[in-house]
Amino acid sequence: MTVRRSWRSVRVTPAVAAAGAGAAVALGTGVLRIPCWFHALTGLDCPFCGGSRAVGALLHGDVGAALSFNAFALVVLLPLAVVTLVAAVRWEAGRARRWWSDGALGWRLTLAVAGLLVVWWVVRNVPFAPFTGLSAYA
């Protein structure tokens, strides 16, 4: 038997969403700058390099610039974050148990996202054209 909670019991997820939105605005607008330690140590881009600048460009309505800073974060990670937030609200309200499949399908989806992350990491650091344009610092 599952316990259904009312929508009034949803308290944690909005607080986390508000904190995340505040952090996105602070990072995206340049109020808060956090340098990438991986880039500082190696000179290479990590998979998330340019993510905060991409958020800033999105906040200013410049989708092209956001794609140039970090296309992977915009196309894969942002929708994944939105789906996770919606699933968390539904779970907290007692409307759903999980959003990610369990069993073999869940493992395949997890490995697919992890594989895409690794491929993006490698491809954006290839040192010749046309891949040099994928760098966050190009």
Outline the structure in words.
The chain has 138 residues and is mostly helical. The protein has one domain (10-134). Helices cover 60% and strands 0% of the residues. It is built from 5 helices and no strands. The protein has helices at residues 12-28, 37-42, 51-59, 63-92, 103-123. It is globular. It starts with 11 loop residues before the first helix and ends in a 15-residue tail after the last helix. The mean pLDDT is 79.
Beta-strand content bin:
under 5%
Biggest pleated-sheet summary: none
Based on CA inertia axes, which overall geometry fits? globular
- How many angstroms separate the termini? 55 Å
Low-confidence stretches: none
Order of helices and strands: HHHHH
* Count, helices: 5
Would you tell me the structural class of the helices and strands? mainly alpha
Find the count of extended strands (DSSP E, 2+ residues): 0
Q: Please state the CA-atom Rg, rounded to the nearest Å.
A: 18 Å
Helix content: 55-70%
Q: How many domains in all? A: 1
Mean pLDDT over all positions = 79
Would you spell out the secondary-structure blueprint of this structure?
Elements: H1 12-28, H2 37-42, H3 51-59, H4 63-92, H5 103-123
Helix pairs in contact: 1-3, 1-4, 3-4
Considering the chains and any ligands shown, give keywords for the structure.
138 residues; single chain; 0% strand; mainly alpha
